[in-house]
Structure formats: C-alpha cells, structure tokens
Write a structure and sequence with these properties.
18% strand, 5-stranded antiparallel sheet, pyrimidine biosynthesis, alpha/beta, Dihydroorotase_CS, dihydroorotase activity, 8-stranded parallel sheet, EC 3.5.2.3, 15 strands
Length: 428
Amino acid sequence: MLSSTRSMFPRYLSSYGMPMHGLVVVDCNLYDFIEVDFTEPLIWLSSKMIKTFALPCKAAKLPCGEFGKPNQVKASRARMQLSITKPDDWHLHLRDGDLLEAVVSHSAQHFGRAVVMPNLRPPITTAAAAMAYHESILKALPSGSNFTPLMTLYLTDSTSPSEIKLARESGIIFAVKLYPAGATTNSQDGVTDLFGKCAPVLEEMIEQNMPLLVHGEVTDPDVDIFDREKVFVDTVLRPLIEKFPRLKVVMEHVTTMDAVKFVESCDGGHVAATVTPQHLVLNRNSIFQGGLQPHNYCLPVLKREIHRQALVAAVTSGDKRFFLGTDSAPHERQRKECACGCAGIYNSPVALSIYARVFEKAGALDKLEAFTSFNGPDFYGLPRNTSKVKLTKTPWRVPKSFSYAAGEIIPMAAGETLEWLVDSVSPQ
C-alpha cells in the first residue's frame, strides 16, 4: 500500500494544480491514503520548523491504553507540523515509589532532561540522598530511554557549604531549591533564615556556579494568598539579588505580572523564570467554576486574568529569561478529592500540547522552540539537545485518568480534546 500511495500522490496533486514541494507526508505507514481532502490550500510558512502535510480522511485509530498513543480524533483538513529540538523540563516533581514508576515515562517521552524537585519525605538534603534518588529514577525509566534527571538539593537552615561542594562534585546535582518553610507540599523543613544561616551556603553556590531555584511566596498568614508572590519579590527576592548579585536565581512557576516585571528588570543574565502550562491557560476562576475544582488547585495558586495575560506576553515575546518548567505534580486522586486536598496539577502528558496552543494563539509559533528547548539549557550552561520532537496539529483526547498500583492520577485537561499531538523523532 505504501508504494502505491507514493506513486498516487504526484498524479493526485498535479490534477489539482498544486506544487509538489508544498506537501510533506509523515509516517506514511500509519495512514491509509484512500481519499485526501484538498478543499483547503496547503500552507507553507517561512520558518523551517513549521510544515504542513495532508492528513488523510481516514485517520489512524491509536489506542489509549499506553500514553504516547492517544485517541486521535477523525480529521481531514491540511495539518500543520512543527519539528523542534527536544525540550527539557526545568521544574518537575517525580515523587517516589509506585507514583514515580507511574509518571516518569510520561516525562521521558516528551523531554530530554528534567530538573527534579527534592521535596520528598524525607527531603533530599544531601548529595548522597540525591544520588540514591537518581538511581531510583533511572531504574523506573522505560527500557531504552535516554531521559536524564538533573537532581537538586533541598536547602535548609542547616545546609553546609561543604554539601554544596559535594553536590557539584557528584556530576548529577545541578541546583539547590529554596522552599520557604510551609510554602507548599512537603516544605515544612524549608528555610526560615535565608540571609543569616544560609548566607555561607549562598556564597559557596556562587563559587560553584550552582543556581538557586526559588519557590517565590512568603508564608506569613497575614498576607493574602493571592499577594504572596508579589510580597516575596519585594521583601525577599529583590534584597537577595542586591546582596548576592552574582548568584544565579530561577524564580520558579511565576504567576504574576509583578514577578514578570522583576525578572525583566534584572540585567546580567543571573535571573530567570520558569512558567507552567496551567498558569498560561487558567486563571483563578478555574478553581471555582461549576463547583470547587480540586484538580485545578496548585501552589502558587492561579491568579487573576490580567496576570495570566502578562505571563503569555512574557513567554511569547522571545525573552530568553523565560523558559519551560511544568511544575507537574502528581497526586493520587483521593488525595486531591478530599476535605483537605493536596496542591498540584499533573500536566506532563499534555504540557507540550498546551504550550503549543498558547504560542499559536499568540501568533508566536516561531518562538516556541526557544522557550521549550534553548533558553533553559543556555541559562544552566548545558548543551542543547540534538534530538527532535514533532508536533502535529491534529486533535486528540486526553485520557480521563491514569491507573497505577495505589489508585489513579487525574491529568490536566482530563477528557478534553487538545489540538497538538506530540511524537518523538530520531536524533539528528
């Protein structure tokens, strides 16, 4: 069927007077070219990473039992295809035990590397603990996976400069995470005296060129939860940068225009920020519409629409200080749907699809690759990936849940139809 398909296309296109160079057929073995709908013109954009190919009327039916083979919705129009350098996830929660084994394959499928958060129980506070966790992640990966976990240390008031040296010497630890005590999941062991007890550690981090990753919220109960990021910027982050101007800092999962403006105001290449898919497409109404929505609850909490728009403007501007960090944070369903539900949105299976939607809507698909694949490694001083992923604009349905040994996990956009389908391609 494949050979007859190839010989059929030139005659079919010629009869419609269409230029042959405008057609790109991908994964021919997946499709049965019985009939092609050319009622819409082929699209050819100037960017080399964006192509369009004819999707057959009879779309392949892909099972949903294993993620990576989602339900593909029937379609017959010309479809856009993006080929981009394989992205990295610069903020990821993989958990441990059964949950780790259930979710790591989703990240490994779409990302080359990921900065793995250390807020386990007990937290990853030493280089030895980070190396043990690293081994657990590698054992949980699917056979043949090239996914690389980039480990982090959990900063505490008792962390020593010598531990930072050991972390750098390990070759697997790339950053230190600052959790203000009580700010988020498993942060009870976090920092209470950043400018006092932690000062020698921050000095050593500068010497070792090791970034500080910041959960940017104050924990003062007198500060409104929707204002905690802004107050953190004004009372903690700005003084931190002034006192340690050579310290590399990533303000993680920024959620407000205040944080965006602060990052944009910093010169010298020492301050950057990660942005999540949920904060680009959801605002705080999403937590309450139609009743309380626990699977839209995360920390930092979703903010007003004006802040969401500021985030979209920042990431689609091409500013190299902003890069991908999903903050994907899985919890078993019952731990979300209970009287005191956990914060966290599990988005690894859908993150790239949602980022692509955001950039397309903003008319900035030509800037997607830098945000997902270039800005992060450039800031960390790491080489860019050499392999590629392709995203095809064809609708597919997100699974309603993922089952594992201890229960099930509800992903972001569960049961919804997304417009961009992700598939890996061979290294180049």
